[in-house]
């Protein structure tokens, strides 16, 4: 099948029978629901990007299983160039939607599963990799949207899955049958699930002996019997039910998450990609996490581009754009944005081939990338709010602005530069408000903090992926504790040794 157009994608969702709830009521027509539709529009943009000739190189590639042209969001990364194009594509998508476009989790889950299933098979003689490739062929043949589902609800964070008072607080196998397995539990904060055809389920952390039932990875249709989706709240989400478009800010686009209940869901064996292999659960988790932390160097930089543009514009409308302190603050926003993007590109350029043949980004740099993202968007939004001013949270409603008596007062007293229409200033203010507060999507900075793992998760991986012994050796040699390097002796190296990851033929000690 050829690549879907955005309309074909929309039409394909209408054929699903989702069990979806929003604000306490079941939603039968979620495609046209005003609260949900902006998030669906953002996913549709990923299909539009693949249709555009100028974006073709970024948004499409060739399937590793069929050889056909596919959307890059469903691809496996078969080179460093693929890793780099992924990040650049994500930045463009962030620029064009100013929100979460929801397909990165599925893309990163596909790549983590591709290599992990291969290595499980190499050790145990299983057939997970063949199953996974067959499922991936189905995805490619039908140009489907895949939601990744890793995060369990976790219950008591102080105890592992096997120690929970309620076993269902981590997704687990409740029955193994001749034709498949039955799973139960819940996945939290699942991005874009209501806009996806398929869900790729993964374990959420390292599993230990006795926790084999929790070491499960599989794929299911999002409308499978037993799947219940509870749509997550967003700041001021019911504004989308009102007439007008100004108060919403980013009217066309948004993101969404949902609490995803799996109530005794049956999964055929040909869709099961891990079933009790506890020693590989952490490999899948860490590889997925690395890919997804790489992703944030693209999408968050693109969203920042929009916020920088909006902030610069509002400063212009207020008549202060050329003030030295405003220029300094906007320059800092640019610096932080480009630093996030640079780190996303760096971990891509340092990627290496896995035994399965696809490429994994550099784990250390991917975690540094995401750790920056847990910090920088907070400063970027702080500066945006600083420059925009208090009007950011005190603007009257659009209904007041359109009111025959009140409107003229608002138009008169909320004008900035005389030549700039009040409505223009008003619209830019609400866009900034939407991006900073999460009015039309999960909050830019909060999602930056917790998406792909909280800061502590990155710190753990940063330390784990660092060759600390090399750093000790360098210091001991230069301090004279160990033999110093002699610059006149060609054979002398002191404490220095060539890092294994500098050898392009060597699989680095990562993940």
Structural overview:
The chain is an alpha+beta fold and 511 residues long. Among the domains are: 285-462, Butyryl-CoA Dehydrogenase, subunit A, domain 3, CATH 1.20.140.10; 467-502, no CATH class. It contains 16 helices and 14 strands. A six-stranded mixed beta sheet has the order 2-1-10-11-7-6, with no helix packed on it. Strand 6 (172-177) and strand 7 (180-191) form a beta hairpin. The model has no long low-confidence stretch (mean pLDDT 94).
State the gist of this model:
Helix content is 44%, strand content 14%.
**Arithmetic mean pLDDT:** 94
| Number of H- or I-type helical stretches | 16
Structural class: alpha+beta
Helix and strand pattern: HEEHHEEHHHEEEEEEEEHHEEHHHHHHHH
Q: Rounded to an integer, what's the Rg over CA atoms?
A: 25 Å
Separation, N- and C-terminal Cα atoms:
35 Å
**Shape, principal axes of CA atoms:** globular
CATH H-level superfamily title of the domain at 285-462: Butyryl-CoA Dehydrogenase, subunit A, domain 3
Fraction in helix: 40-55%
Q: In the CATH hierarchy, what is the architecture of the domain at 285-462 at level 2?
A: Up-down Bundle
Q: Into which percentage range does the β-strand content fall?
A: 5-15%
Q: What is the CATH fold-level name of the domain at 285-462? A: Butyryl-CoA Dehydrogenase, subunit A, domain 3
Q: Uncertain spans, ≥5 residues at pLDDT below 50?
A: none
Question: What is the CATH level 1 assignment of the domain at 285-462?
Answer: Mainly Alpha
Main sheet attributes: strand count, strand direction, barrel closure: 6 strands, mixed
Number of strands: 14
Give the strand order, joined by hyphens, for the main sheet: 2-1-10-11-7-6
